[in-house]
Amino acid sequence: MVKPSNDSSAAFLATVAANVVPLVGVFHLGWSAQTFAVVYALELVVAVPFAGLKALFARRPPNYDELERPQEGNPLKPDEWGGVSVGPSDLNRRRGSVAVVDSLPPVYPRNVPFVLRAFGAAVSLVGVFLFVLGRFVDVPATLADPSVAVSVVFLVVSHVGVVEREYFRKRRHETSTPRDVVASATTEAGLAVVVLMFAIVGGPTGALVAFVAVKLFAEWRGYRGGVAFDPDEGVGTLPPVAAPDASPTVEVRPDRRAVRGAALWRGAKSAIGSGPVYLFAWVGLTAGSTGPVAATVVCFGLLPAGIGGLQAVEYALTHGTLAYQRRDDAVVAYDDLTDTVQWATLVDDIRDVELCEGEFVDRACDTRTFSLTPSAGEYERSVAHLREYGRAVEAFELPVETTAFGPLDRRVAGAAAAVGACGVAAVAGLAYSAPTIAAVAAAWGGPFGVVALRRAWQWALPAA
After folding, report:
1. Strand pairing category for 368-374 and 381-386
2. Which residue has the higher pLDDT, 240 or 342?
3. Are 341 and 354 in contact (CB under 8 A)?
């Protein structure tokens, strides 16, 4: 353990004093505990998406052994829970980086799933804090207070300053992993949620005490050098790609329309899956001075758009920037965004190729996605959303039995689509006459509807 320096000791004592002052003011000077509770909650919420932005620049890759592949038959895959969890994907194994601004370090596309995790955690925090604090604090009115608005601006500016000084200027991004950067913020926020649940009986004062206690505990751990996750342990590595140094004889690219459609489809499913969080936020806002319409726009419009939009960006980066090439006797995936070879496998080493029958967008756009299983390799590779699939099968010598989709059971697909459309129409109709019932139906019906539609789609697919 590194011995704390005099500078760190002074900074720690200053932080302790700064967090004790609000308690003294509330207990002895009559300051508003409600205002400070909201400000502390805002600080925790703001810190999480900032951690996601920092994770973009983390140079060291994550520990790939911890990214366990979700079960294919599980309708609630961990990587689809509103972006809160990071599962295995072709993107978080992506090689290369992109220089966006000359004054900043390069951005690593493989870290984008961790940004989605951070944003999903921030949305969850918004829902929980609004739900809990809304019982005794008019959160919207408190946020409209000029002093609180100034505090929000100060929080954002101070976070920018800390990131520039501590993360970039001291070059900590070079030794950080995206998982640890995000975990450092989400761990503190999660602890605050747990403590807040027990301290809620004390009202605004109890909430303030809970936030201050968690803040001081986190600062103490940082001062003592204790971290929840050691960035020097268990960092994954990606072996170099042995790709032929030859010009491609054949190059096939994903169809852009299919990639955009699949990205939007994945984003919509991810956004709907976080419905209960939106409901918690909606209850918290409507308990204060926010009207049902404005709360609905924020909670069931802006928050899902943010989660779904990031999920769509992640999917587009995963498949939309690749080009599949034939170089000598190898199939190569080349990323145009980072100008880097992502993977390569010899044609003779491809053990099995499977046509992905369940891709809804491929059926709609007449494209194909193939799953490749190499003889030696950690995970399957995908060749996704090809319009020139016949040319790819021939050029890459893919041992696939057929490129034709089997017939769907249109009765099951039609019934599922009709039930889904009726459910959406019913929620929209309730929104005018009974907004509370509509919010509850949308929050809980949405995730169950996604699961039900996925099951119906699997039933409609041809039997293997």
Report:
1. antiparallel
2. 342
3. no
